[in-house]
Amino acid sequence: MDSIISVQKIYKTFGKTQALSEVSFEAERGKVLGLLGPNGAGKTTLIRILTTLLSPDKGKAIVAGYDVAKEAQKLRSVIGLAGQYAAVDETLTGRENLEMFARLYHLGRKESRNRASAILKEMSLEEAGNRPVKTYSGGMRRRLDVGASLIFEPQVLFLDEPTTGLDPRARNDLWRFIHSLVEKGTSVVLTTQYLEEADALADRIVLLDKGKVITQGTSRELKRELGGNMVEIEPKDWQESKKIADLLKNKFNQDVRIKDSHQLITFPAPNGPADLRDALNILEESDIELLHISLTQPTLDEVFLSFTEKETKND
Amino acid sequence: MTDFTNGLSDILVITQRNLIRYRRLPQLVIFSTVQPIMFLLLFNYVFGGAIQQTGTGNYINFLLPGLIIQSVLFGGIQASVGISTDMSSGIVDRLRSLPISRVAFISGRVLADTIRNLFVVLIMIGVGFLIGFRFEAGIVNAFIAVVLAVSFGFAFSWISVAIGLFVKNPEAAQPAGFIWIFPLVFASSVFVPVQTMPEWLQVFARNQPVTKITQAVRSFTAGGSHDALIPVLIWMSVITVLFMGLSVWLYRRSQ
Ligand SMILES: Nc1ncnc2c1ncn2[C@@H]1O[C@H](COP(=O)(O)OP(=O)(O)OP(=O)(O)O)[C@@H](O)[C@H]1O
Ligand SMILES: [Mg+2]
Description:
The structure holds two protein chains of two kinds. Chain A has helices spanning about 45-50, 70-75, 95-105, 110-120, 140-150, 170-185, 195-200, 220-225, 240-250, 275-285, 300-315, and strands at about 5-15, 15-30, 30-35, 60-65, 65, 80, 155-160, 185-190, 205-210, 210-215, 230-235, 255-260, 265-270, 290-295. Chain A contains eleven helices and 14 strands. The radius of gyration of chain A is 24 Å and the shape is elongated. In chain A, strands 6-7-8-3-9-10 form a six-stranded mixed β-sheet, sandwiched between helices. A four-stranded antiparallel β-sheet of chain A has the order 2-1-4-5. Chain A has a four-stranded antiparallel β-sheet with strand order 12-13-11-14, with helices on one face. Chain A folds into two domains: about 5-225, Rossmann fold, CATH 3.40.50.300; about 225-295, Alpha-Beta Plaits, CATH 3.30.70. By secondary structure, chain A is an alpha/beta fold. By secondary structure, chain B is an all-alpha fold. Helices cover about 80% and strands about 0% of the residues of chain B. Chain B has helices at about 1-25, 25-50, 60-90, 90-95, 105-130, 140-165, 170-180, 180-185, 200-205, 210-220, 230-255. Chain B is globular and about 60 Å long. The interface between A and B is medium-sized, with 30 and 24 residues. Bound molecules: adenosine-5'-triphosphate and magnesium ion.
């Protein structure tokens, strides 16, 4: 693998909080790495370490060939960062903010102006560009913030919860935009709490919880790790759910779950279509009527919950 | 060399950002202009008569240099709140992630405040002229007086920056930024001659930097001995070096 980021056994504590503990992973050049985890997992801390804002207590991280601790200043000229909280000046206009950041990347005056205009256009902020940022909506601010991190066409772009607070359309626009950057060769690291987002954007996912890497891989691999196919059954009469579950348990000897909230019964189906056919047959023999039955893959949500639950149980 | 020019350009870009803020939030400048002018008028007309009798000559010529020093000091202390506000917002994070000079953020603030101070000083001199103030030692000395006053503000701004970086929280920076300045301004020769104070206070009042700078500036606006100049230059260099160093250290250390 051609690594753009290599993180080796990073530790970070804040007082008594162990924010990161033996975190290691690699990110491939020109791909999107998703850092996924619940509140307090350590995603922001990790991003801050990789962008030279924090130094790790222990361990080593190489980004774009530079050691984050020893070659911080060189690294800063090849990365872009949009942090979790908007980092723009409220009293300046969107355009002034962008020009300021461009100038701080040491672009010339004219080039800075051109880049600012291009970014405003890219982020659909042309109309608002000459208004002070304090008049912007949350989503506009967010877009400006992400735009500011792109002002220099960085080699590696770090986005900490980039779509938080965006409406679905703005989120889609941003996703498309990230895809287009990746096509042009930018490597991206993003954190998200939307599993859908990690699924849609990330080539590789690192699942963090309580400062530790719980698992990592492509979203397909993570889903497979959970056990692959499931059969999902929705009976016509929910009163019969218990009876159905018992029948299935006898037949398949699997972990059959009754999900009252969704009125669904699910169980793992390692044999895929064969299991589905068998399930249909037994239920038919017992005269149970169904509204719906299907073979599904677990959603990333289920992967996420199952891994983070496992962690909690082990504690 | 390019590192140096880049560093300079970084400082100027941040300075410009702060100046745009002043233009867009004129209350930041208006209050720091109105207050010294109000003091100027109040002191001149309310205390002027009483103080004149104690034999200090023309009171406005005595008062204006002192008020100019007071205004550059009061102007500078706003940096505590400004810096701590910036530190608690996300903008500093972004600045830190850029390949810019480590001192640009704080130096740009101090430079912008110095420019604003110059502006306030010129307005005060204008108003002073209208109510009878005159430079009695010639134009070159008048120029030196202005440069001295503004440089003094520059040196003291670094104290405010250090406080802002140390306190971090804007609400705490408000009182912390102000408190230390009052004894310096009032136990000095800014408003009244030092001889009128109790003896124990005179020892402090005579030697502290605000008195020295006021004397030095007066010696260039009204004429007289420049004895206070050397102590002032020493005070300013020591304060600048000490607090600039402290500020840079605090800025780098804060995460
Ligand atoms: N500067 C700090 N001082 C003290 N504790 C901190 C600091 N920064 C982070 N922490 C703690 O470290 C842990 C990880 O925080 P971090 O912000 O990295 O989580 P996160 O995954 O980004 O969470 P979220 O999804 O809520 O943004 C948390 O317990 C947090 O309280
Ligand atoms: Mg976070």
